[in-house]
Design a protein that fits this description.
Layout: H1 15-41, H2 43-50, H3 54-78, H4 84-104, H5 108-135, H6 142-171, H7 175-194, H8 206-210, H9 216-228, H10 230-236, H11 239-246, H12 254-278, H13 280-301, H14 305-320, H15 322-333, H16 338-365, H17 372-397
Helix pairs in contact: 1-5, 1-6, 1-7, 2-3, 3-5, 3-16, 4-5, 4-7, 5-6, 5-16, 6-12, 6-15, 9-15, 9-16, 9-17, 10-16, 10-17, 12-13, 12-14, 12-15, 13-14, 13-15, 13-17, 15-16, 16-17
């Protein structure tokens, strides 16, 4: 059996202890989600606080995303020889300190560096957390375990991000980073207490982890995430403008819109984990066309307030159903380098974030309107489906290494 699915050498976990271990790992996802997404809602306050322009404030978000893309493979490879629990703890310490440094950053340049630093452990933490969760359950429940860890990111959009936005608007935007630091400290305590210790793989090394990058199926899985999930971000990035300008929903209800999107993500994540346990590739084949269909329907339904709100939930659900299957696919494609392969999923999603936002902004700039990003997203989902089909056809010729 591969290292990606080998269970702990300790005694089997009880249902209660398994739940607490996964909760501990998911709490890290809550903190990551709050620091990543709340900045979007506090850009005006950040601009005023640092005396910078809107594009410069946007660069703070880009710096975080760049940190994720750089840090995911780098830190996962460097930490390959560490026991997984130790790596998770180290990454969360890094994350907590980096966010607290944003709280005290005196100027724009320092803030830019601190946001880049805060993004570095993002993907690597999710990667090792997914590997740990998958190792604590039988192979037939890996998708469920991974989806439960990823649920922290979804739940942060329902509860954490709205609360952090209110906190920042009411008492000062820098308090966002104090809140994230406290969540980081809570995560450290929970991981230390409830996640079982596992020895590092005896053959683990930086070279072994980087060997995952030589595999075509790993790159195809990454490409599915970049292209297929790009539509999710093309729509989400401009959702506030779409709801107010096209649907006619008051701006005061945008927090409700964001919460509905987050609830959809929670529901989709849970369902996606369960169907991924039945068939990873089957999930990709079904979910990517479903995303395309949901985005096309959204483009029509968004002209009326109630149908717009319904489709916000549906789009959030359909997009997040993809994540557990992609995470599991990367583990399957590189069983001897699970931490790096798993972390690459989050690097791919952040590239998708940049791609979707860029293409959505492009069609808006061309004068096609705020509905156009959803249609761009539908095209991206279809292209992602094409990549998935190609990956499946190649697997028939050359099965994945077991």
């Amino acid at each position: 059996m591969s290292s990606a699915t080998t269970t702990s050498t300790a005694a089997p976990l009880t249902s209660r202890n398994l739940g607490l271990a996964i909760l501990a790992l998911a709490m890290g996802g809550v903190g990551i989600g709050v620091t990543e997404f709340t900045m979007m809602g506090l850009l005006k306050e950040v601009e005023q606080g640092l005396n910078i322009s809107t594009p410069e404030a946007g660069h703070l978000i880009s710096a975080y995303a760049l940190g994720v893309v750089v840090g995911a493979p780098l830190l996962a490879a460097v930490g390959a020889r560490l026991p997984r629990k130790s790596l998770a703890l180290g990454l969360m310490v890094f994350f907590t300190v980096a966010n607290l440094s944003s709280f005290v950053a005196p100027d724009y340049g320092t803030m830019l560096v601190s946001r880049f630093a805060a993004g570095l452990p993002h993907g690597a933490f999710f990667g090792v957390a997914a590997v740990i969760a998958a190792s604590l359950v039988p192979p037939t429940r890996r998708g469920w375990a991974i989806s439960m860890v990823m649920a922290g990111l979804s739940i942060s959009n329902v509860v954490g991000v709205p609360f952090a936005t209110w906190l920042g608007q009411t008492y000062g935007w820098r308090l966002l980073f104090v809140l994230v630091g406290l969540i980081g400290l809570l995560t450290l305590a929970l991981v230390w207490r409830f996640v079982p210790f596992q020895e590092a793989h005896p053959d683990a090394s930086i070279r072994r982890e980087l060997g995952a990058l030589k595999r075509l199926q790993v790159w195809l899985a990454i490409l599915i995430g970049v292209v297929g999930f790009g539509g999710f971000f093309a729509t989400y990035t401009y959702i506030a403008h779409t709801m107010t300008v096209v649907a006619g929903i008051p701006s005061s209800l945008i927090p409700v819109v964001v919460a509905l999107y987050g609830l959809g993500m929670v529901a989709g994540n849970i369902v996606g984990g369960r169907i991924a346990d039945k068939s990873v590739m089957g999930t990709l084949y079904k979910v990517l066309p479903a995303i395309a269909a949901a985005l096309v329907i959204y483009a029509v339904a968004v002209h009326w307030p109630w149908s717009a709100l319904l489709m916000v939930f549906v789009v959030g659900a359909s997009g997040s159903m993809l994540i557990p299957a992609l995470q599991t696919r990367l583990l399957d494609a590189s069983p001897d380098a699970p931490s790096l392969a798993s972390s690459l999923n989050h690097a791919a999603l952040n590239v998708a974030n940049a791609l979707g936002a860029f293409l959505g902004g492009l069609v808006i700039a061309w004068g096609w309107g705020y509905v156009a990003p959803a249609l761009v997203g539908a095209v991206l989902a279809v292209l992602g489906f094409g990549v998935a089909v190609l990956s499946g056809l190649l697997e028939r010729r050359q099965p994945l290494a077991g």
